[in-house]
Design a protein that fits this description.
The complex is a heterodimer of chains A (249) and B (199). Chain A is of the alpha+beta class. Chain A has 7 helices and 8 strands; from the N terminus they run E-E-E-E-E-H-H-H-E-E-E-H-H-H-H. Chain A folds into 2 domains: 76 residues, Beta Barrel (OB fold (Dihydrolipoamide Acetyltransferase, E2P)), CATH 2.40.50; 165 residues, Recombination protein O, C-terminal domain (de novo design (two linked rop proteins)). In chain A, strand 6 and strand 7 form a beta hairpin. Among the domains of chain B are: 34 residues, RecR Domain 1 (Helicase, Ruva Protein, domain 3, Orthogonal Bundle); 94 residues, Dna Topoisomerase Vi A Subunit, Chain: A, domain 2 (3-Layer(aba) Sandwich). Classes of the chains: A alpha+beta (249), B alpha/beta (199).
Protein backbone atom coordinates (compact mmCIF):
# COMPACT_ATOMS: atom_id res chain seq x y z
CA UNK A 1 0.00 0.00 0.00
CA UNK A 2 1.31 3.42 -0.96
CA UNK A 3 2.40 5.61 1.91
CA UNK A 4 1.40 8.75 -0.02
CA UNK A 5 -2.30 9.51 0.04
CA UNK A 6 -4.50 12.33 -1.18
CA UNK A 7 -7.35 13.55 1.01
CA UNK A 8 -9.64 16.54 1.24
CA UNK A 9 -9.99 17.66 4.86
CA UNK A 10 -11.06 20.34 7.29
CA UNK A 11 -8.47 21.59 9.76
CA UNK A 12 -10.00 21.22 13.23
CA UNK A 13 -7.01 22.39 15.20
CA UNK A 14 -3.46 23.68 14.77
CA UNK A 15 -0.81 23.64 17.47
CA UNK A 16 2.80 24.68 17.37
CA UNK A 17 5.21 21.76 17.24
CA UNK A 18 8.83 22.59 18.01
CA UNK A 19 10.36 25.70 16.47
CA UNK A 20 8.64 26.07 13.10
CA UNK A 21 6.32 23.09 12.63
CA UNK A 22 2.64 22.77 13.34
CA UNK A 23 0.64 19.76 14.46
CA UNK A 24 -2.76 19.74 12.78
CA UNK A 25 -5.87 17.74 13.55
CA UNK A 26 -7.49 17.00 10.21
CA UNK A 27 -11.00 15.72 9.65
CA UNK A 28 -11.56 14.08 6.31
CA UNK A 29 -14.44 12.14 4.75
CA UNK A 30 -11.85 9.63 3.48
CA UNK A 31 -9.46 9.08 6.39
CA UNK A 32 -11.52 10.43 9.30
CA UNK A 33 -9.81 12.26 12.13
CA UNK A 34 -6.02 12.27 11.81
CA UNK A 35 -2.99 14.05 13.21
CA UNK A 36 -0.65 15.58 10.64
CA UNK A 37 2.65 17.41 10.96
CA UNK A 38 3.05 20.50 8.80
CA UNK A 39 6.83 21.01 8.58
CA UNK A 40 7.91 24.65 8.66
CA UNK A 41 4.30 25.94 8.69
CA UNK A 42 5.13 28.72 11.20
CA UNK A 43 7.55 30.26 8.72
CA UNK A 44 5.95 33.24 6.90
CA UNK A 45 7.36 32.00 3.59
CA UNK A 46 6.10 28.43 4.03
CA UNK A 47 3.82 27.09 1.30
CA UNK A 48 1.90 25.22 4.02
CA UNK A 49 1.33 28.27 6.27
CA UNK A 50 -2.00 29.45 4.85
CA UNK A 51 -3.56 25.99 4.97
CA UNK A 52 -2.26 25.00 8.39
CA UNK A 53 -5.02 26.89 10.19
CA UNK A 54 -8.41 25.99 11.65
CA UNK A 55 -11.44 26.84 9.49
CA UNK A 56 -9.59 25.76 6.34
CA UNK A 57 -10.85 23.33 3.68
CA UNK A 58 -7.92 21.95 1.70
CA UNK A 59 -6.71 19.09 -0.43
CA UNK A 60 -3.74 17.43 1.22
CA UNK A 61 -1.00 15.17 -0.06
CA UNK A 62 -0.03 13.19 3.03
CA UNK A 63 2.82 10.85 3.81
CA UNK A 64 1.76 8.14 6.24
CA UNK A 65 4.12 7.75 9.20
CA UNK A 66 3.98 5.43 12.23
CA UNK A 67 1.63 7.57 14.31
CA UNK A 68 1.23 10.78 12.32
CA UNK A 69 0.87 11.91 8.76
CA UNK A 70 3.30 14.45 7.36
CA UNK A 71 1.91 17.03 4.98
CA UNK A 72 3.82 17.01 1.74
CA UNK A 73 1.64 19.48 -0.18
CA UNK A 74 -1.64 21.25 0.30
CA UNK A 75 -4.00 23.28 -1.81
CA UNK A 76 -6.40 25.57 0.02
CA UNK A 77 -9.95 25.23 -1.36
CA UNK A 78 -11.61 27.66 1.02
CA UNK A 79 -10.42 29.60 4.02
CA UNK A 80 -13.25 30.83 6.23
CA UNK A 81 -11.80 34.22 7.11
CA UNK A 82 -15.22 35.66 8.09
CA UNK A 83 -15.17 33.61 11.32
CA UNK A 84 -12.00 35.35 12.52
CA UNK A 85 -13.67 38.75 12.62
CA UNK A 86 -16.24 37.75 15.22
CA UNK A 87 -14.89 36.49 18.52
CA UNK A 88 -18.12 34.67 19.47
CA UNK A 89 -18.42 33.04 16.03
CA UNK A 90 -14.74 32.08 16.25
CA UNK A 91 -15.24 30.43 19.66
CA UNK A 92 -18.46 28.69 18.55
CA UNK A 93 -16.71 27.34 15.43
CA UNK A 94 -13.91 25.97 17.59
CA UNK A 95 -16.48 24.52 20.00
CA UNK A 96 -17.92 22.53 17.08
CA UNK A 97 -14.37 21.40 16.20
CA UNK A 98 -13.71 20.38 19.81
CA UNK A 99 -16.96 18.41 19.93
CA UNK A 100 -15.94 16.50 16.79
CA UNK A 101 -12.38 16.04 18.04
CA UNK A 102 -13.57 14.57 21.34
CA UNK A 103 -16.34 12.32 20.06
CA UNK A 104 -14.92 10.88 16.84
CA UNK A 105 -12.26 8.17 17.05
CA UNK A 106 -8.98 8.55 15.17
CA UNK A 107 -9.07 7.09 11.67
CA UNK A 108 -12.86 6.57 11.68
CA UNK A 109 -14.35 7.99 8.47
CA UNK A 110 -17.59 9.81 9.21
CA UNK A 111 -18.73 11.68 6.07
CA UNK A 112 -22.07 12.79 7.61
CA UNK A 113 -20.32 14.55 10.50
CA UNK A 114 -17.85 16.05 8.02
CA UNK A 115 -20.74 17.50 5.97
CA UNK A 116 -22.49 18.79 9.10
CA UNK A 117 -19.37 20.56 10.36
CA UNK A 118 -18.62 22.02 6.92
CA UNK A 119 -22.18 23.37 6.60
CA UNK A 120 -22.20 24.89 10.09
CA UNK A 121 -18.77 26.49 9.61
CA UNK A 122 -19.97 28.00 6.32
CA UNK A 123 -23.00 29.50 8.08
CA UNK A 124 -20.81 30.93 10.84
CA UNK A 125 -18.51 32.36 8.20
CA UNK A 126 -21.42 34.09 6.47
CA UNK A 127 -22.42 35.51 9.88
CA UNK A 128 -26.05 34.86 9.08
CA UNK A 129 -28.46 33.96 11.85
CA UNK A 130 -27.80 33.37 15.53
CA UNK A 131 -24.49 31.57 16.26
CA UNK A 132 -25.74 30.17 19.58
CA UNK A 133 -28.79 28.58 17.94
CA UNK A 134 -26.52 27.17 15.24
CA UNK A 135 -24.36 25.61 17.99
CA UNK A 136 -27.48 23.97 19.54
CA UNK A 137 -28.46 22.68 16.09
CA UNK A 138 -24.95 21.26 15.70
CA UNK A 139 -25.16 19.53 19.10
CA UNK A 140 -28.55 17.98 18.27
CA UNK A 141 -27.36 16.71 14.89
CA UNK A 142 -24.13 15.39 16.39
CA UNK A 143 -26.11 13.49 19.04
CA UNK A 144 -28.23 12.07 16.24
CA UNK A 145 -25.22 10.98 14.17
CA UNK A 146 -23.44 9.49 17.18
CA UNK A 147 -26.52 7.42 18.02
CA UNK A 148 -27.76 9.43 21.03
CA UNK A 149 -30.70 11.21 19.41
CA UNK A 150 -32.91 12.61 22.19
CA UNK A 151 -36.51 11.38 21.95
CA UNK A 152 -38.69 14.47 21.68
CA UNK A 153 -41.89 13.29 19.94
CA UNK A 154 -43.79 11.81 22.88
CA UNK A 155 -43.29 10.19 26.29
CA UNK A 156 -40.37 7.75 26.13
CA UNK A 157 -42.23 5.35 28.47
CA UNK A 158 -45.92 5.33 27.50
CA UNK A 159 -45.93 7.16 24.16
CA UNK A 160 -48.43 9.75 25.38
CA UNK A 161 -48.21 12.95 23.31
CA UNK A 162 -49.91 15.46 25.65
CA UNK A 163 -47.99 18.17 27.53
CA UNK A 164 -46.66 18.88 30.11
CA UNK A 165 -43.42 16.99 29.58
CA UNK A 166 -40.37 16.55 31.77
CA UNK A 167 -36.75 15.88 30.96
CA UNK A 168 -34.17 13.53 32.37
CA UNK A 169 -30.81 12.84 30.73
CA UNK A 170 -30.72 9.15 31.61
CA UNK A 171 -34.18 8.57 30.07
CA UNK A 172 -32.95 9.80 26.72
CA UNK A 173 -35.71 12.34 26.18
CA UNK A 174 -39.08 13.59 27.44
CA UNK A 175 -41.68 11.85 29.57
CA UNK A 176 -45.21 12.72 30.68
CA UNK A 177 -46.60 13.66 34.11
CA UNK A 178 -47.91 10.13 34.79
CA UNK A 179 -44.53 8.51 34.10
CA UNK A 180 -42.69 11.24 36.01
CA UNK A 181 -43.71 9.90 39.44
CA UNK A 182 -40.70 8.78 41.43
CA UNK A 183 -38.23 9.93 38.77
CA UNK A 184 -35.68 12.74 38.94
CA UNK A 185 -36.98 15.28 36.48
CA UNK A 186 -36.56 18.73 35.12
CA UNK A 187 -39.48 20.81 33.88
CA UNK A 188 -39.30 21.60 30.18
CA UNK A 189 -41.29 24.54 28.88
CA UNK A 190 -43.58 23.93 25.90
CA UNK A 191 -41.76 26.66 23.92
CA UNK A 192 -38.33 25.10 24.48
CA UNK A 193 -39.62 21.64 23.54
CA UNK A 194 -41.16 23.01 20.34
CA UNK A 195 -37.87 24.75 19.54
CA UNK A 196 -35.87 21.56 20.11
CA UNK A 197 -38.25 19.60 17.88
CA UNK A 198 -37.91 22.19 15.10
CA UNK A 199 -34.11 22.18 15.31
CA UNK A 200 -34.01 18.40 15.27
CA UNK A 201 -36.13 18.23 12.13
CA UNK A 202 -34.70 21.03 10.00
CA UNK A 203 -31.74 21.14 7.58
CA UNK A 204 -28.78 23.46 8.29
CA UNK A 205 -29.83 26.05 5.73
CA UNK A 206 -33.03 26.87 7.64
CA UNK A 207 -31.39 27.41 11.05
CA UNK A 208 -30.35 30.95 10.13
CA UNK A 209 -34.03 31.97 10.30
CA UNK A 210 -34.48 30.71 13.86
CA UNK A 211 -34.63 33.21 16.72
CA UNK A 212 -35.17 32.73 20.46
CA UNK A 213 -35.22 34.95 23.56
CA UNK A 214 -32.09 34.93 25.77
CA UNK A 215 -33.81 32.93 28.55
CA UNK A 216 -34.86 30.19 26.17
CA UNK A 217 -31.41 30.05 24.58
CA UNK A 218 -29.93 29.59 28.06
CA UNK A 219 -32.39 26.77 28.82
CA UNK A 220 -31.55 25.05 25.52
CA UNK A 221 -27.84 25.37 26.17
CA UNK A 222 -28.06 23.89 29.66
CA UNK A 223 -30.31 21.00 28.62
CA UNK A 224 -28.09 19.99 25.72
CA UNK A 225 -24.86 20.52 27.66
CA UNK A 226 -25.99 18.08 30.38
CA UNK A 227 -27.41 15.63 27.85
CA UNK A 228 -24.19 15.64 25.83
CA UNK A 229 -22.11 15.25 28.97
CA UNK A 230 -24.24 12.34 30.18
CA UNK A 231 -24.22 10.35 26.93
CA UNK A 232 -20.74 11.08 25.59
CA UNK A 233 -18.99 11.10 28.97
CA UNK A 234 -17.28 14.40 28.17
CA UNK A 235 -17.42 16.51 31.29
CA UNK A 236 -16.15 19.82 29.96
CA UNK A 237 -15.13 21.66 26.84
CA UNK A 238 -12.40 24.30 26.96
CA UNK A 239 -14.20 26.28 24.28
CA UNK A 240 -17.35 26.42 26.44
CA UNK A 241 -15.28 27.82 29.30
CA UNK A 242 -13.89 30.38 26.86
CA UNK A 243 -17.41 31.30 25.69
CA UNK A 244 -18.42 31.87 29.32
CA UNK A 245 -15.36 34.13 29.80
CA UNK A 246 -16.26 36.38 26.89
CA UNK A 247 -20.00 36.26 27.53
CA UNK A 248 -21.87 39.21 29.02
CA UNK A 249 -24.39 36.91 30.70
CA UNK B 1 21.37 2.98 32.04
CA UNK B 2 23.95 3.93 29.42
CA UNK B 3 24.96 7.31 30.90
CA UNK B 4 25.87 8.26 34.45
CA UNK B 5 23.09 9.89 36.56
CA UNK B 6 24.70 13.35 36.19
CA UNK B 7 24.87 13.11 32.39
CA UNK B 8 21.31 11.78 32.21
CA UNK B 9 20.13 14.73 34.32
CA UNK B 10 21.94 17.18 32.05
CA UNK B 11 20.42 15.57 28.93
CA UNK B 12 16.94 15.70 30.46
CA UNK B 13 17.44 19.38 31.39
CA UNK B 14 18.54 20.27 27.87
CA UNK B 15 15.58 18.39 26.36
CA UNK B 16 13.23 20.87 28.03
CA UNK B 17 14.46 23.59 25.67
CA UNK B 18 12.32 24.24 22.58
CA UNK B 19 13.43 22.49 19.40
CA UNK B 20 15.81 20.16 21.27
CA UNK B 21 15.17 16.46 20.73
CA UNK B 22 16.93 13.56 22.47
CA UNK B 23 19.81 13.35 19.96
CA UNK B 24 20.52 17.08 20.05
CA UNK B 25 20.29 17.05 23.85
CA UNK B 26 22.91 14.29 23.98
CA UNK B 27 25.19 16.17 21.60
CA UNK B 28 24.88 19.38 23.61
CA UNK B 29 25.46 17.54 26.90
CA UNK B 30 28.70 16.03 25.60
CA UNK B 31 29.75 19.41 24.26
CA UNK B 32 29.16 20.99 27.70
CA UNK B 33 31.27 18.24 29.28
CA UNK B 34 34.10 18.98 26.86
CA UNK B 35 34.07 22.72 27.71
CA UNK B 36 36.51 24.36 30.13
CA UNK B 37 35.21 24.54 33.71
CA UNK B 38 35.30 28.39 33.70
CA UNK B 39 33.24 28.54 30.52
CA UNK B 40 30.62 26.18 31.95
CA UNK B 41 30.47 28.29 35.11
CA UNK B 42 30.03 31.46 33.07
CA UNK B 43 27.29 29.77 31.04
CA UNK B 44 25.45 28.59 34.18
CA UNK B 45 25.89 32.01 35.79
CA UNK B 46 24.46 33.75 32.69
CA UNK B 47 21.36 31.53 32.84
CA UNK B 48 20.77 32.15 36.53
CA UNK B 49 21.54 35.85 36.30
CA UNK B 50 19.12 36.40 33.40
CA UNK B 51 16.40 34.47 35.22
CA UNK B 52 16.98 36.48 38.40
CA UNK B 53 17.18 39.95 36.85
CA UNK B 54 14.79 39.91 33.92
CA UNK B 55 11.15 40.79 34.62
CA UNK B 56 8.23 42.39 32.88
CA UNK B 57 8.03 46.14 32.34
CA UNK B 58 5.23 47.56 34.48
CA UNK B 59 3.95 49.69 31.55
CA UNK B 60 4.19 47.49 28.46
CA UNK B 61 5.13 44.01 29.80
CA UNK B 62 8.24 43.86 27.62
CA UNK B 63 11.16 42.01 29.21
CA UNK B 64 13.49 44.31 31.09
CA UNK B 65 15.84 44.54 34.07
CA UNK B 66 14.28 47.83 35.27
CA UNK B 67 10.83 48.65 36.62
CA UNK B 68 10.06 50.41 33.30
CA UNK B 69 11.78 49.28 30.07
CA UNK B 70 14.10 51.48 27.97
CA UNK B 71 11.48 51.92 25.22
CA UNK B 72 8.81 53.19 27.62
CA UNK B 73 11.39 55.52 29.25
CA UNK B 74 12.61 56.98 25.94
CA UNK B 75 11.19 60.56 25.62
CA UNK B 76 11.87 60.59 21.84
CA UNK B 77 9.27 57.88 21.31
CA UNK B 78 5.84 58.86 20.04
CA UNK B 79 3.75 58.40 23.16
CA UNK B 80 0.36 58.47 21.40
CA UNK B 81 1.13 55.45 19.20
CA UNK B 82 1.01 51.91 20.61
CA UNK B 83 1.96 48.69 18.82
CA UNK B 84 0.41 45.56 20.35
CA UNK B 85 2.42 42.34 19.93
CA UNK B 86 1.92 38.76 21.14
CA UNK B 87 5.42 38.12 22.51
CA UNK B 88 8.31 40.25 23.72
CA UNK B 89 10.54 38.81 20.98
CA UNK B 90 8.22 40.36 18.36
CA UNK B 91 9.39 43.81 19.52
CA UNK B 92 12.90 42.95 18.40
CA UNK B 93 11.66 42.06 14.89
CA UNK B 94 9.81 45.38 14.55
CA UNK B 95 12.65 47.41 16.06
CA UNK B 96 15.10 45.95 13.53
CA UNK B 97 13.14 47.66 10.73
CA UNK B 98 13.92 51.11 12.19
CA UNK B 99 10.52 52.24 10.83
CA UNK B 100 8.52 52.43 14.02
CA UNK B 101 9.00 55.10 16.69
CA UNK B 102 5.99 54.53 18.92
CA UNK B 103 5.54 52.47 22.10
CA UNK B 104 4.72 48.77 22.52
CA UNK B 105 2.42 46.56 24.53
CA UNK B 106 3.07 42.82 24.95
CA UNK B 107 0.02 40.56 25.41
CA UNK B 108 2.06 37.41 26.23
CA UNK B 109 -0.05 35.18 24.01
CA UNK B 110 -3.21 35.15 21.92
CA UNK B 111 -6.81 34.19 22.61
CA UNK B 112 -7.12 30.44 22.23
CA UNK B 113 -10.50 28.85 23.01
CA UNK B 114 -9.12 25.32 22.52
CA UNK B 115 -6.34 25.93 25.04
CA UNK B 116 -8.70 27.74 27.44
CA UNK B 117 -6.83 31.05 27.07
CA UNK B 118 -9.27 33.93 27.45
CA UNK B 119 -8.77 37.69 27.80
CA UNK B 120 -8.07 37.39 31.54
CA UNK B 121 -5.16 35.01 30.93
CA UNK B 122 -3.50 37.64 28.73
CA UNK B 123 -2.72 41.29 29.42
CA UNK B 124 -5.89 42.46 27.62
CA UNK B 125 -7.57 44.01 30.71
CA UNK B 126 -4.33 45.97 31.39
CA UNK B 127 -4.21 47.10 27.77
CA UNK B 128 -7.80 48.38 27.89
CA UNK B 129 -7.03 50.10 31.18
CA UNK B 130 -4.08 51.84 29.53
CA UNK B 131 -6.21 52.92 26.57
CA UNK B 132 -8.74 54.37 29.00
CA UNK B 133 -6.04 56.66 30.41
CA UNK B 134 -6.44 58.65 27.18
CA UNK B 135 -2.84 59.28 26.08
CA UNK B 136 -2.86 56.65 23.30
CA UNK B 137 -4.58 57.86 20.13
CA UNK B 138 -3.69 55.03 17.75
CA UNK B 139 -3.12 51.31 18.26
CA UNK B 140 -1.43 49.02 15.72
CA UNK B 141 -2.43 45.39 16.16
CA UNK B 142 0.70 43.41 15.25
CA UNK B 143 -0.48 40.00 16.46
CA UNK B 144 0.44 37.00 14.30
CA UNK B 145 -1.35 36.76 10.93
CA UNK B 146 -3.12 33.51 11.84
CA UNK B 147 -6.56 32.58 13.18
CA UNK B 148 -5.68 33.20 16.83
CA UNK B 149 -3.82 36.44 16.10
CA UNK B 150 -6.69 37.76 13.98
CA UNK B 151 -9.32 36.85 16.57
CA UNK B 152 -7.27 38.56 19.30
CA UNK B 153 -6.86 41.68 17.17
CA UNK B 154 -10.59 41.84 16.42
CA UNK B 155 -11.50 41.27 20.07
CA UNK B 156 -9.27 44.15 21.19
CA UNK B 157 -10.49 46.42 18.39
CA UNK B 158 -14.08 45.72 19.40
CA UNK B 159 -13.37 46.33 23.09
CA UNK B 160 -11.47 49.57 22.33
CA UNK B 161 -14.18 50.97 20.04
CA UNK B 162 -16.14 52.77 22.81
CA UNK B 163 -12.90 54.45 23.94
CA UNK B 164 -12.54 56.34 20.66
CA UNK B 165 -9.03 55.02 19.96
CA UNK B 166 -8.08 54.42 16.32
CA UNK B 167 -7.18 50.72 15.92
CA UNK B 168 -5.18 49.58 12.87
CA UNK B 169 -4.10 46.09 11.77
CA UNK B 170 -0.63 45.50 10.31
CA UNK B 171 -0.67 44.96 6.54
CA UNK B 172 -0.76 41.51 4.94
CA UNK B 173 0.73 40.52 1.67
CA UNK B 174 3.40 38.64 -0.18
CA UNK B 175 6.78 37.94 1.41
CA UNK B 176 9.64 39.87 -0.20
CA UNK B 177 11.71 37.73 -2.58
CA UNK B 178 8.95 35.19 -3.32
CA UNK B 179 7.30 34.25 -6.62
CA UNK B 180 3.62 35.04 -7.23
CA UNK B 181 2.96 31.54 -8.60
CA UNK B 182 3.56 30.04 -5.15
CA UNK B 183 1.24 32.43 -3.30
CA UNK B 184 -1.87 30.91 -1.74
CA UNK B 185 -5.38 32.32 -2.33
CA UNK B 186 -5.72 33.99 1.06
CA UNK B 187 -2.36 35.77 0.98
CA UNK B 188 -2.97 36.85 -2.61
CA UNK B 189 -6.45 38.21 -1.88
CA UNK B 190 -5.15 40.11 1.15
CA UNK B 191 -2.27 41.49 -0.92
CA UNK B 192 -4.78 42.73 -3.51
CA UNK B 193 -6.95 44.30 -0.81
CA UNK B 194 -3.93 46.13 0.59
CA UNK B 195 -2.69 47.37 -2.85
CA UNK B 196 -1.28 50.90 -2.96
CA UNK B 197 -0.67 53.59 -5.54
CA UNK B 198 2.90 53.58 -6.86
CA UNK B 199 3.38 57.30 -7.45
Amino acid sequence: MSRLIKAGALVLRARRLGEKDKLLTLFSPEIGKAGARAPGACNVKSKLAAGAEPFTFANFLLYRGKSLYTISQLEVKKSLVGIRGNIRGYALGLYMAELVEKTVEEGEAFPAIYRLLAECWHLLNEQKGDGDILARFFELKMLDLLGYRPHLDNCVFCGQAKAPFYWNNSCGGIFCGNCARGRTRMALSAGTLAFLRSLQAMPAGKVIKMRAPTGQKRELREILRHFLGYWTGIESFKTQDFLRKISDE
Amino acid sequence: MIFSPAITRLIEALRRLPGIGPKTAQRLAFFVLSMRKEDVEEFAHALLDAKKRVRQCSRCFNLTEEEVCSICRDPRRESTLLCVVQEARDIYVIEKTGQYRGLYFVLHGALSPLEGIGPEELKIPRLLQRLQEGEIKEVIMATNPNVEGDATAFYIAESARPLGVKVMRIGFGLPVGGDLEYADQLTMSRALEARREMF
